[in-house]
Design goal:
Layout (H helix, E strand, L loop, with lengths): L11 E8 L1 E7 L3 E8 L4 H15 L9 E5 L5 H18 L3 E4 L1 H6 L9 E6 L5 E6 L10 E3 L1 H10 L5 E4 L3 H4 L6 E3 L8 H10 L37
Parallel strand pairs: 1-4, 4-5, 6-9, 9-10
Antiparallel strand pairs: 1-2, 2-3, 6-7, 7-8
Helix pairs in contact: 1-2
Length: 238
């Protein structure tokens, strides 16, 4: 959808629900209000009240919002869909542009860079991590990928860096497998405040593609095998 206004500092509403937290923020030339609550489930029930809360806190009407920003993954299958669905609905109702951002890039934006590169690693269980590496300037070194701990250690060493910061829920595990890994002080979950700040730096809000999820592996839940379904028999006597 086209942007509603060419204001130099448009009002941006942002959210993230891709992991074990629900985060929202309202931004206009700086953070006006932000909330983040850790939760393993219940994102769908928590998101809209949180969005309404930051609007109420700043006495902002929905019609005053000019842009929407949302993370699109990687993350949990349900969590990714909750945020996208909510922002699609608001975009349609308010005739606003909505732009998606990678979850791992948003997490990297919360890290305070020094001389070392950064690895964002989300523990996806079963020795799998959703991961992306960034150089000491915060520039992505690879696309988001689902990798094992051994693959991540090899990736880190292939950069030639002797040390690499790690942020995300995978940090505690990865710091045990390679001496060069050390935990970042960045939050373990994406922050909508960082997302909104990233969105504020973007100038291209015209002719945006439809917001789509970024999945790095299929959902854990699968449909039942039709060959194993129960076959009911008639009760009539033989």
């Amino acid at each position: 959808m086209p942007a509603k206004s060419s204001d130099p500092a448009p009002l941006i509403l942002a959210c993230d629900t891709t992991q074990a937290a629900c985060s929202v923020a309202l931004y206009q030339a700086g953070i006006l209000a932000a909330q983040c609550a850790e939760m393993s489930k219940g994102h769908a029930e928590a998101l809209m009240p949180m969005l309404e809360s930051v609007l109420a806190e700043t006495e902002t009407a929905r019609r005053d919002v000019r842009r929407l920003a949302v993370t699109h993954g990687p993350g949990t299958f349900t969590g990714v869909r909750v945020g996208l669905s909510a922002m699609r609905g608001l975009a349609l109702a308010l005739d606003l542009p909505v732009k998606t951002y990678g979850t791992l890039a948003v997490m990297a934006a919360a890290h305070k860079y020094a001389d070392d590169p950064l690895l964002v690693a989300v523990d996806a269980k079963r020795d799998t991590f959703y991961a992306q590496a960034f150089d000491a300037n915060g520039v992505a070194m690879n696309d988001p990928a689902a990798l094992t701990a051994a693959q991540l250690a090899a990736l880190a060493q292939s950069t030639g860096a002797e040390r690499m910061a790690v942020c995300g829920t995978g940090a505690p595990l990865l710091t045990e497998i390679w001496s060069g890994f050390y935990a970042s002080h960045a939050p373990p979950y994406p922050q909508a405040a960082c997302l909104a700040a990233m969105a504020a730096q973007d100038t291209d809000w015209l002719n945006l593609p439809p917001p789509e999820p970024l999945y790095l592996r299929p959902p854990d839940a699968t449909l039942p095998d039709p060959e194993k379904r129960i076959k009911w028999r008639s009760a009539r006597p033989v």
